[in-house]
Design brief:
By secondary structure, this protein is an alpha/beta fold. The protein folds into two domains: about 180 residues, Rossmann fold (3-Layer(aba) Sandwich), CATH 3.40.50; about 150 residues, 2-Layer Sandwich (Alpha-Beta Plaits), CATH 3.30.70.20. About 45% of the residues lie in helices and about 15% in strands. The chain is built from 13 helices and twelve strands.
Length: about 350
């Protein structure tokens, strides 16, 4: 059998975590004398230009969003050609934290397993399935970690990723992701809901406040071209992957998550639509008669989520238009947690 001495990595990165992991693995391969190539999926023309080669090790590296492989990478894997006697590895970065001296892992959900199954059906041998718990960057849910904590987590994982890379080069397998199979399966329903609906709702939670100076940096640097100009203000489309790149690189800290808008919309829908709709048409009684009980709960949740998604689409246009008025803009921004100074932004370090 011909020996593999070439590595090709496809990666996607919002704030730099996955890009750093890619760089670490490429460095190990280069030091071992391998030929290496890497392609950023944000550059669509670049990654579509390369045909599959036999006896090449392929890697896929991307962040975990909503306990899924980031959709851009997942859809790319779905379109990826069949194997020509190839091995592959999958790396997902997921929200790592630190409590004192204890490094806390994130959760992968379906990120690793669906991708691995698809590649298996395409004829690839899965040599590696490796989650990497780099600092969480989902600042729409929590403040960015302190710089000392970020550096500590990076130092902790740099050596581990380098060891994983050496195993790949030596032809050894590492399926660390399977150690977390049980908890990942338990949260898989959340992953499904996020993929079908949650990611679209989050895409409609971003706004630009009055601090925006129209520099267009968010529009220019969006990895998936999800931001466009509408009424002289950044507007987030459903293409948004919630990668947090725009919010973290904005030099004016003008981009916010409209927490008050999200919560207010949910409450209004619950009170004004769902209760009235279910009561008026007897949908509640219909659900109560369904057996088993979990099916009733699931259908109720799906219908509620669908209505919420449709209302988010409808109300986001109004939200965007009303942001031109100072009093409304202040109301939205001051009810956003990301507005306050203690809510730190996040950028992956480049020194590792």
């Amino acid at each position: 059998m011909k020996q593999i001495e070439k590595l090709v990595i496809y990666y996607y990165s919002g704030t730099g975590n996955a890009a750093n992991v890619c760089r670490w693995i490429l460095k190990v391969a280069t030091d071992k004398g391998w030929a290496v190539e890497s392609y950023n999926l944000a550059n669509r023309e670049q990654h579509l230009a390369q045909p599959i080669e036999a006896h090449v090790l392929y890697g896929f590296i991307a962040p975990t969003h909503g306990f899924n492989m980031v959709p851009l990478m997942f859809h790319f894997i779905l379109r990826f050609p069949r194997a020509l006697n190839n091995r592959v590895f999958i790396v997902n970065t997921r929200g790592g934290l630190k409590l004192g001296r204890i490094f806390l892992p994130g959760l992968s959900g379906s990120a690793q397993y669906l991708s691995a199954l698809i590649l298996l059906f395409k004829g690839y041998k899965i040599q590696g399935m490796y989650p990497v718990d780099l600092p969480s960057n989902w600042i729409l849910l929590h403040p960015g970690l302190k710089s000392k904590v970020v550096e500590s987590i990076y130092e902790h994982w740099y050596s581990r990723v380098s060891h994983f890379a050496r195993q790949l080069i030596e032809g050894k397998s590492n399926h660390r992701a399977l150690f977390h199979l049980i908890q990942d399966l338990l949260i898989s329903p959340i992953a499904v809901l996020y993929y079908l609906m949650g990611r679209f709702i989050l895409a409609k939670s971003f706004v630009a406040g009055s601090a925006c100076n129209n520099c267009s940096l968010c529009v220019k640097e969006c990895p998936v071209n999800a931001i466009k100009w509408v009424d002289k203000r950044p507007f987030w489309t459903f293409r948004c992957e919630s990668c947090m790149h725009c919010m973290n690189v904005c030099p004016q800290r003008a981009i916010e998550t409209a927490h008050g808008y999200l919560i207010g919309t949910l409450v209004l829908i619950k009170l004004a639509l769902l209760i009235g709709l279910f009561g008026e048409f007897g949908i509640d009684s219909f659900f109560e008669q369904l057996q088993p009980a979990w099916l009733s709960g699931l259908l109720s949740l799906l219908i509620s989520s669908l209505i919420y998604l449709l209302m988010m689409l409808f109300t986001y246009r109004f939200l965007h238009g009303l942001m031109r008025y100072r009093w409304f803009e202040r109301l939205v921004i001051l009810t956003s947690l990301t507005h306050f100074k203690f809510w730190r932004r996040y950028q992956a370090p480049k020194t590792f």
